[in-house]
Known about the structure:
Layout: E1 5-10, E2 13-18, E3 24-29, E4 32-33, E5 51-52, E6 58-60, E7 63-66, E8 69-72, E9 82-84, E10 94-98, E11 102-109, E12 119-128, E13 131-140, E14 146-148, E15 151-152, E16 155-156, E17 167-169, E18 172-178, E19 185-190, E20 202-203, E21 210-216, E22 223-229, E23 235-241, E24 246-250, E25 264-269, H1 275-278, E26 283-285, E27 290-299
Antiparallel strand pairs: 1-2, 2-3, 3-4, 5-15, 6-9, 7-8, 10-11, 11-12, 12-13, 13-27, 14-26, 16-25, 17-20, 17-22, 18-19, 18-21, 21-24, 22-23, 23-27, 24-25
Amino acid sequence: MTGTEHGLRHGDYTAVITARGAAVRELQFRGRDLIVPFPAGGPNPDFRGVIVAPWPNRIPDGRYTFDGADYQVPVNESGRQCALHGFTPELDWKLESSTESAVKLSCAIEPGPGYPFTIGLTASYRLDGNGLHTRVAATNIGGNTAPYGVCPHPYLLAGPAPLDEWTLEVPARTFLEVTPDRLLPVALRTVVDHEFDFRTPRIIGATKIDHAFTEIAFDADGGSQMVIRDPDGTGVGMAWDRSCPWLQIHTADKEHPAPNRLGLAVEPMTCPPDAFNSGRDLVRLQPGASHEASWSIFAS
């Protein structure tokens, strides 16, 4: 259930943030949906709009090794036997402060099976004339160094046409190849001469994507962005900073009869899938230390 909701408004933008998962349930620009919404009061399908921590994406079999110790977290993706999207999507975040255009929520990841660490988290949402801005801060309030990663999980909507007709631009030079059955990391591959090369905007077509991209082009101010556009001229974009050197893109392909390719999942990530095992770009959060990551969604 979504729990308490917080409505935000600024100029042409409106948003609804839920207590459960600190999820962006709805984001609109001039009444146009920029993300795939979900109903108030009910379950949240496919982790729509949630904050994902302390690990993005998957841990195979829920097993990882950190600082020489072996851990087992609960498996919640039974079909692929993976631990998916951490703990925060199922937590109820508390209200810390709010205004007409901003809200700050908090929660704590308490020590539990396979993750004996204590992390305090805040998610700050703010609307302005340039869209919805999010900042997630994590503090290790326990006594041991903790593995940590974070990402958002929105499904973007470019406009009314089917996803196959949208034009996509992704400023990334490489992607993480995964196994076809369990989507487990295999190796980094260049996008050059590959169907995943969207550095120059082009139509998505029938391309199926559920992969992490990296070697992202950042500007002089340390920012990057991707944009999708509908044939009718509307569009939506996402921007992020260097705290997120990875970008998960998913065309939301579903098995029949589930609704298929409803939106494009775009997830700026602090680390790649299975970083708890690989250690790649994994945040080692020391006791008392904090980490911040930020991103924005905007109409284009």
